[in-house]
Design brief:
single chain; 7-stranded mixed β-sheet; 5-stranded mixed β-sheet
Length: 519
């Protein structure tokens, strides 16, 4: 499946890999030791496909190691986590880290469930047997009880599934491949695996141990209705192999962790999304079900897959612009991101509704545009110290992060939203909130940008000046942005979203805005 030439984002980059996990888990000491080793080795980009739940930065070993990395000019990209679609489920929230969510791609490994009534439901499976007959077979719903419906090990032993296609439900304590093993051990001929409701239309291609297809939750519900409608339900599975060009490409995956950030609500996270569903990945052992096959590749899904995509893109940008700081590279990636899918409509989430800002962040990465962003929001490592003081951390806690002496009493702290970040996350009550941002011209020497405000419901946004005119490369200009509640009534506690876009004749530099309305 997925035949062709496998290539990374930065195929000429040299890779240094550091093992930090084992069957026993991922120990903090090993993670930090590996990050220290990478810094000593002189890497340009760190890619960390791991993380835990939300935690204060001074207790977050990845945040601490990443800060040491940016002090050496090293870009750090991390997985947002796989705890979606629940709000506030992010990992790796520090603003000096690029926090990467996961999106689908336009390639699928298709296995279609065809019911006896001729209805068809497209699903996926890496295992595509050429010798499985395309013919109707008896179809049974394993959901007589909860354990059987989930196809847990041994749950089908007293159910007659021999020679039948078995409908199983995702979830429980058993992974999809082991559910198939349960069906196979009970004598089942094949499996249709329906998503959990929360996963909706995000389907995963797994290397199943028997003919199978994973279908959406909606499809599974309809298949159940069909089974209940007839005394002799039947189905077949049509294996169609690799199909490229699916129109619903670039949806946010259900598992991709969502904002808002709990560790720092004034920083909008995730930052970006990139390809993370059904990605061809090197694997330590063969997953083929065919004899004499030894292909050490697998199809893997997760933000552990999207993170390396962004790491490779960051490496390309670092190569093209060696003088850019990690913050400048992050800004270029975020402000040029796309909010449109491959069909030209707004990017959707797993439910096929427009993805919100806490799923999408700044948008889907657009590498070619990121190479020429026009303007960047830059930050140096010392710029994070007033921000950390503003979080209310003690001097000792901040010293744990920055590894030098700090006295917040001698520093003018800043609110989170004042950090020179390429996005805005604001809590807005009855008073006006005002912040500044400084942008650096990395485009043509003579260029002019005018601001476009994409209004958030219930919020008036003002920007001064509304035009930025540059006369040289690397020139910096500062603007002020104001937020206040409008006369349009919006329920308190509601999150609303908008954006500002600085437009020139050639470029659009977009910063997303999230506003939480409070009393």
């Amino acid at each position: 499946m997925a035949n062709g030439t496998a290539v990374g984002m930065a195929p000429r980059a040299h890779l240094a890999m550091y093992k930090v996990c084992s069957d026993e888990g991922c120990y903090e000491a090993d993670i930090l030791a590996a990050m220290d080793a990478a810094i000593e080795d002189g890497v340009h980009v760190m890619s960390l496909s791991l993380g835990g739940g939300s935690i204060d930065f001074f207790d977050d070993i990845i945040a601490i190691g990443a800060f040491a990395a940016i002090q050496k000019g090293i870009f750090v990209s991390c997985s947002a986590g796989n705890s979606g679609p629940f709000d506030g489920s992010l990992s790796n929230e520090a603003p000096w880290i690029l926090t990467v969510g996961a999106s689908t791609i336009d390639r699928r490994i298709v296995a279609t469930a065809v019911l006896g009534n001729k209805d068809e439901y497209t699903g996926e499976s890496v295992f595509q047997p050429s010798d499985f007959p395309y013919e109707d077979m008896p179809l049974i719903d394993a959901g007589g009880n909860v354990t059987a419906g989930l196809c847990e090990p041994g749950s089908l032993d007293n159910i007659d599934v021999k020679g039948k296609i078995v409908l199983c439900q995702s979830g429980g304590w058993t992974d999809p491949i082991d559910k198939g093993q349960t069906v196979k051990d009970a004598g089942g001929a094949a499996m249709i695996l329906m998503n959990k409701e929360r996963d909706a239309y995000t389907t995963i291609a797994d290397p199943h141990v028997l003919p199978a297809t994973e279908v959406s939750y909606g499809a599974g519900v309809k298949i159940r209705v069909y089974i209940s409608s007839t005394s002799t339900p039947r189905a077949a599975i049509k294996f169609r192999g690799t199909v490229i060009g699916f129109p619903s490409a670039l949806t946010v995956a259900s598992f991709s962790s969502r904002g808002p950030s709990l560790a720092s609500p004034g920083i909008l996270k995730p930052d970006i999304v990139g390809p993370g569903v059904n990605i061809l990945a090197a694997w330590p052992e063969s997953v083929d079900n065919y004899p004499n096959e030894n292909a050490t590749f697998n199809m893997i899904s997760g933000t552990s897959m999207s993170c390396p995509h962004l790491s490779g893109i960051a490496a390309l940008l670092k190569s093209a612009h060696p003088d850019w700081s990690p913050a400048a590279i992050k800004s270029a990636i975020m402000t040029t991101a796309s909010q449109l899918d491959s069909a030209g409509g707004p990017i959707e989430d797993e439910r096929h509704v427009t993805a919100d800002i806490f799923a999408l962040g700044a948008g889907h990465v657009n590498p070619s545009s990121a190479n020429d962003p026009g303007l960047v929001y830059d930050l140096q490592p010392e710029d994070y110290i007033p921000y950390l003081c503003g979080l209310g951390y003690t001097d000792d806690e901040i010293e744990t992060i920055v590894q030098k002496s700090v006295s917040c009493s001698n520093i003018t702290s800043v609110p989170e939203a004042q950090l020179n970040y390429p996005s805005f996350s604001v809590e807005l009550g009855g008073s006006t909130k005002t912040y500044t941002r400084t942008v650096t011209n990395v485009g043509e020497a003579n260029s002019t940008y005018s601001v476009e405000i994409i209004r958030a419901k219930g919020v008036d946004v003002g920007v001064e000046p509304c035009t930025l005119s540059f006369s040289k490369v690397n020139q910096k200009m500062t603007y002020e942005i104001r937020f206040r509640k409008s006369s349009t009534p919006v329920v308190n506690g509601t999150f609303v979203q908008g954006a500002i876009v600085w437009r020139s004749a050639k470029r659009a530099v977009r910063s997303p805005i999230s506003v939480k309305l409070v009393r």
